[in-house]
Amino acid sequence: MALERGKFGIEYNPRSLRKETPSFLKWIVALVVIAALSSLVWSIVSRNKVRKDDSLGTLSAIESSSSQVDSAPTAEKTSAVANLPIIDAVPQNDSSISKRPVKVRNLLMRLEEAERMRDIEMAVTTIETIRALPGSPAADLDDALARRLGKLNMRRLFSIKSAQWVKNVTVKRGDSATRIAREHGSTLASLKKLNSFSVDKLKIGMKLHVMNHPRFNLVIRKRLMMADLSLNGKFFNRYDLSSEVKGSDGAYELGENRRRFWNEIGVEFKNTDREELETLLPAGSSVIISEM
């Protein structure tokens, strides 16, 4: 009972039952909240530290791998680099980049930017500029650059259908795929690859993409065991030979029967490369075997 002395003697007062929360309970609640927040902050800091340690471990592994690659023989390095995109073959954090001439360093940075932006034309012109620099200051990268340029050129030809090599034609009465390819100095295989639809049954008025009188020249280099293909006077692509050349040095003209021709001059390519060359090269194309 809540009895108090009142105006009229001992009276009942219900307000006295309402007691405020003791101050020591407020402190307990505050301490619990602070402890919870401290635990949360510690957890976050610990996670960030683990991630940082993992990153440092990965970076150390990469640096260790890079040092091993730098100590490898030159021939092995060239072979490994040749199979990589140029953006990976020439990493900007490589210490050797800083030792290169300013012009080469700037061009390599420009090439990296072109690769990142997927700007094929910019990448092509940059590689061509690097390879044409007087004195060949990037000679150790030339093979990787040439192979990257070859892949870009193939994309420009068959995916983008660059106007410098490809012409649009309209099918006329009496036309056939073979006739159109022959009239434009190209191959039936390239005509089929340039068009997304079947060219076996053409209709009057249809639009076709066809290579416009390409002038291919293939130089087979015995000693280097590779072949360089040029198109209209400019480097186009590079291929490896699968065995030593048995034919004699000299100039040859590609025959209609491609398989027989390669056998006669004693040149062998990987199947995929041979098929690609036979798609590109029309009969009569120049093939040169050189000792170098």
Kindly name the structural category: alpha+beta
Contiguous helical run count:
11
Tell me the radius of gyration. Answer: 37 Å
Give a count of the beta strands, DSSP E runs of length 2 or more.
Answer: 9
Order of helices and strands: EEHHHHHHHEHHEEEEEHHE
* Biggest β-sheet: strands ordered side by side in the sheet: 7-6-5-9-8
Helix content: 40-55%
Spans of 5+ residues with little confidence (pLDDT < 50)? Answer: 17-21, 49-89
Task: Give the N-to-C terminal Cα separation.
Answer: 116 Å
- Taken from the alpha-carbon principal axes, the silhouette is elongated
- Largest sheet data: 5 strands, mixed
Estimate the mean pLDDT confidence.
81
As a percent range, the share of strand residues is 15-25%
Can you put this structure into words, describing what you see?
The protein has 292 residues and is of the alpha+beta class. The protein has eleven helices and nine strands. The chain has helices spanning 23-70, 74-82, 86-89, 95-98, 102-117, 120-131, 142-160, 177-183, 188-194, 258-265, 271-280; strands at 3-6, 9-12, 166-170, 207-211, 216-221, 226-231, 234-240, 250-253, 286-290. Strands 7-6-5-9-8 form a five-stranded mixed β-sheet. A two-stranded antiparallel ribbon has the order 1-2. It is elongated.
Keywords for this entry:
16% strand; 5-stranded mixed β-sheet; single chain; 292 residues; elongated; alpha+beta
